[in-house]
Amino acid sequence: MRQLIPAAGILFLFSVVLLAQPSRQTYTYKTVEDCKIQADVYRPPGEAVTPAILWIHGGALIMGNREGIRGAQLERYLQAGYTVVSIDYRLAPETKLAAIVADLEDAYRWVREKGPALFRIDPARIAVVGHSAGGYLTLMSGFRLQPRPRALVSFYGYGDIAGEWYSRPDPFYNRQPKVSKEVAYRGVNQGVISGSTGGDRPAFYLYCRQLGIWPKEVAAHDPDTEPRAFDAFCPLRNVTEHYPPTLLLHGDKDTDVPFEQSALMAKELKRRRVEHEFIAMPGHGHGFDREMGDPAVAAAFDRVMAFLQRRLAR
Fold this sequence. Notes:
Helices cover 37% and strands 19% of the residues. It has helices at 7-20, 71-79, 97-119, 133-144, 164-167, 181-186, 201-211, 214-219, 259-271, 295-312; strands at residues 23-32, 35-43, 50-56, 83-87, 121-131, 151-155, 246-251, 276-281. An eight-stranded mixed β-sheet has the order 1-2-4-3-5-6-7-8, sandwiched between helices. Helix 4 (133-144) links the parallel strand 5 and strand 6.
């Protein structure tokens, strides 16, 4: 015979579920002109002081927003006792790369200075995690943020933004219908923006890849005539023995960011004797971690969690 739960019991169970949910709070960590640059903070239940993950979305620095964090991954971070700070940053081409990196620096400073009082994090235990362009900014964190983060996790990121993969017409993207200049610029140059939700901005990215002009449009420098201008914006050129412990993940079938980008970073980290791991994902493409039900992806993410646990321990 089925047992019925009294209405009061249902309300109690519902309240317990609500109390068990992680909190989410949105903050403005910086304002430029009339653009509020925001961060979503997710805390696990309880009042304990926690380590923090500064999470950075992808989108070629042209599109994307702080809500791009995958739910299953967020849940794993929270279950492990981490507070997750998912940030927006200003987007290109309206904002150029130097200012985007400044947003990253300001976000990190805000988390360290305001985080302990606002959301009870330990400022000495922060890891940076990012995907694609967020992975690139994560690798930039390794030498631009002070004090250094405890750890970096780069999902299919890149260490060289001036190489031919970005500065020459891309064969994969040129198999897609050509984007005209008129269409490409229709959705951009409308003023300072952070936290894009799509619109015509993907067309601008496709246009850049088809012509090989991403470095010019995003960094405002030409890698052919100003190669040294990219020194400060290529993590591959800035690895020292002081670089933080780093975990790299990349699929060898990635048609957006070449697998070689993580392989080159791993080689340089090894040369500089920096603690690191490189998880190659055979047969997997860009954004492979969308498929968390894939046993290989699940195993790789388990290694991410183990890496963070080692580096964020007291």
